Please model this.
Amino acid sequence: MRIGELAAAVGVTTRTVRHYHHLGLLPEPARRANGYRHYALRHAVVLARIRRLTELGLGLTEVRDVLADDAGKDLAEVLTELDADLARQEAGIRERRRRLRALLDAGEPPAEGPVSPELAAVLDALPADGSPMAAKDRKVLALVDTGASPEDRERLSAALRGVLDDPDAVARAREAYAPLDAPADADPDDPRVERTARTLAACVPDGLPMEGQPDLDNAVLGALYADLAPAQAEAVRRMLEIALGVER
Model:
């Protein structure tokens, strides 16, 4: 058989056959005097086996292990590993569907979505009417929610929910955002910056997930400061110092 006839017999392309030659999966016969390779039945048998194994979900490295005499892995071992891997994928898909269903059941997702159902409930209760800093705060919360561990995500959501369950929480939140919006054009040493920082620090809920002493100049906070006006950045930095008890 020539390469095209071999490929057609097994139901693959000639490009696939050449790729398997390149990887060393399929023995490559020597060329005859006419310059063409001639494939025997044994080549078709090996190629058919490679196709069956890949259709089961084995990667080509795993296929090589199955085909190699000295690989140390027999077919049953490789298939057992594949079955365990598929089980993990199934569990992951079920968890993703559960999260999607929770988001859909919660109604219209927030503009910052998709976020965890826990944060979606928090964002729904936060004021976002006209305050540029409130809008930015929501985006930062979505960023934190994405990078946090499940445990820290739950602690953050619980702490925020504890504040928002207070009937006066929305009014206090508006109170906190108003002064932070106000000094956008002020100088960083403007007295309003310190007052704003203290107002904001008083609104920080207890129980936020903070391990040890956070670096107030880390890369993420640095990006946040750079995205704010100088006075606003100073107010946020000072608020964090007050909330964490950092002395200047």
About this structure: The mean pLDDT is 79. The chain has twelve helices and no strands.
